[in-house]
Each structure stands twice: as structure tokens, then as C-alpha cells.
């Protein structure tokens, strides 16, 4: 069967692209190997889909070319997506830091995109295995478990590698390679970090403890909560920092981001109080204070600290350094860092420079957003842009 456009991947970017192209009058076929539509939207944002971020700007994204995402983000903005959400009567709220969530479940967003595809007359086939993709003089031919299809444009929206149990595959990267497009290295991002055994054991009793910190790794610095786990650390501050963390790097946590620890310790010098109890002033859970001070060899009374020890303790409170030994991998990662090199694509259309008619959109591309709705905004923006040009 002949179409104008075939979109592979009925996730966030693929649905947006198919709807946009369909509503332009293009004859669109949307293919996916999964049984259910847009599983990642369904599980996103704890089931409420953090569908965009009011502050989505190019500098909230990681990419070998940090400017690549500018054009798509300008062509389709968070306000454009919000307008669609409002048109469909979907209630939403800002949780914090510009993060917009549905009042009800993520299903509302899936139903909205499904309806937009219906308005564009998009044909959709789920549970369809794609066996072979080949280039022809006037477009692309696909052999699938449901027959052969042809189209002048092919859009690849197969996402990243995270959560393989709900349908993630490396198919998009393999297609890029088949057509000679370069890939940047792939690694799990927005992912919990793990500790070496001795650190993990020391902090295991703290699993579940959460604390506001400023976490930094490489060039990433984020003020949010850290959550101790049985294996290491998680929570928004760590997920954010993980995108900047590389094996061998130290993770640094400012455990008292609002205080001047040196001045505070100076003021308390001579006090009979245990340091662990005094730290409750900053909202530290006692069991965390005790375990942390124990590990720092400092579980004592304030009056027992020498001036030098006060200075060292202040430094560690503002710059506690731990060396993670890895991440929890694609099983727990929200996204994949890296992907189809932006060098191979036009930022204005998302089309491959060397292969007219072939487009890559969404997470399969080397553009990775921060935590907080940025990744969906990239999916909507890049999907829209390709939908306008395919
Ligand atoms: P996907 O949405 O992953 O869609 C890819 C589609 O391609 C899937 O339907 C898949 O079945 C299909 N596919 C894959 N391989 C093949 C193949 N071989 N043949 C046919 N079809 C194939 N981002 C946010 O902005 N806000 C959030 O609240 C948020 N929460 C998240 C929570 C979790 C637990 C996870 C894992 C991610 C979350 N993300 C969130 C990230 C966001 O889900 C992704 O960045 C986004 O879904 C990427 O969109 P995409 O269309 O590129 O890929």
C-alpha cells in the first residue's frame, strides 16, 4: 500500500508527527510493534504525565550541539502544546519549577493525541513488526509482519533504550546506521546512581531518607531532593546530575545549601549539644545525621570540635564528595543520552541531510532534556516540525 508518510513508533513524538502531517492532508501510516499506544506517556510523571515545562529553553537540553534544539523549540513551544491540552478540556496544574502535570491521568494526553491523529485521518497499525526498510527511487519500502508499505517520507520515532520491558528497542539507531548516519555514544540518563559496596552498606539503613541538597557532577548543578536507596542515591537532584555524570567522576553534594556552615559551627562552638541533634535545625533526619557524621568520624558534641575540625566539617557539609560506581541502567533510566547525531540532521525540518525524505524525531536523536517535562516538549516540538515537512 502506498502512503505519503510512514511514521515508525507510536509514542510521544510519533503521534505528534503523524497528527500534524495528517492534518496537513498527507496520507499517513503510523506503525508500532507494541500492543498498546504510547506506553511511556502512560507511565510518565507517576501516571500524571509531566507533559511540558514552562521554561523549556535550549540550555535545558544536553546534546553534542546544544543549539540544535533551538529551532524546533521555537517552531512549537510549550504554549502551543498547552493550547492543544486546553482545546481538549484537559485540566492541568504546575507542580513546581514550571513543570505542568495533568490533573487526571496520563491517559488524557494519549487520548488527545489519538484524537488528533483521527482528525488527520492517520492509519495506525499496532503489533506490527518491521522486518526490512529499503530505499527506492521515489521513497521507502517497508516489509512488515502486516504486509508491505511504501511512502515518499519515512519518520523514525522509535525512542530510546530505557525501560525495555515496555517496548524500547535499538531499532531507530540501527536504521540510522543502515542509512550511514552517525550516532553519538548512548548511555542511560535521568537514572539513580549506585555506590561501591562499602558506601552502599554504610547508607543502606538510610534507604527512604530524603534531603534537599545541591548536587553537582561535571557541568550539571541542581538544587532539589536527594533520596537514599538500598543501592546508592536517587531523587530529582541525582537524576538531573546523572545526565552529566560519567564513570570515574565524583558526585558532590552541598548538604546545607541555604546555610553558612562555618559561621553556624563557630556560633555553636562550646555547646554541649551533639552535632547530630543540632543539625535537626536544618531539617536533617536524626538517623541521617548520625550515619553521615559517623562515616565522617565526627559523631560528637559541638564543644569537642577543634577550630580545624570545625573548618573541615563545614567544608564537607557544603561539598560532600562520593564516587558512585555506576548507574541503575536502562531498566531504571528515564531517558537515553546520545543518539542520532545532530550533525546528520536539519534542525529546521529534522530531515537527514544526506537522505531526502528520512526524518528522525524525539528521543532517538542526540537531544536529551532535564527532568521536568523537557523531554516530552522535545518530542512534541521535533514531532511537529517533522510533521510540517514530511
Ligand atoms: P517513546 O515515547 O518511547 O516512543 C517510542 C515508540 O516506538 C514506542 O511506542 C515503541 O513501542 C516504538 N518502537 C520502539 N522500537 C520499535 C520497533 N522496533 N518497531 C516498531 N515500533 C517500535 N518525560 C517528560 O518530559 N515528562 C515526564 O513526566 C516523563 N516521565 C517519564 C517516566 C518514565 C518512567 C520514563 C521511562 C520516561 C519519562 N519521560 C518523561 C521521558 C519520555 O517518556 C520520553 O522522553 C518520551 O516518551 C520520548 O518520546 P519518543 O516518542 O521519542 O519515544
Automatic annotation (TrEMBL):
Domain annotation RsdA/BaiN/AoA(So)-like insert: ranges: 188-335
NCBIfam families recorded: aminoacetone oxidase family FAD-binding enzyme
Species of origin: Chromobacterium fluminis
Domain RsdA/BaiN/AoA(So)-like Rossmann fold-like: from-to ranges: 4-388
UniProt keyword annotations, A-Z: FAD, Flavoprotein
Pfam families, per database record: HI0933_like (PF03486), HI0933_like_1st (PF22780)
Cofactors named for this entry: FAD
Name of the protein described by the UniProt record: NAD(P)/FAD-dependent oxidoreductase
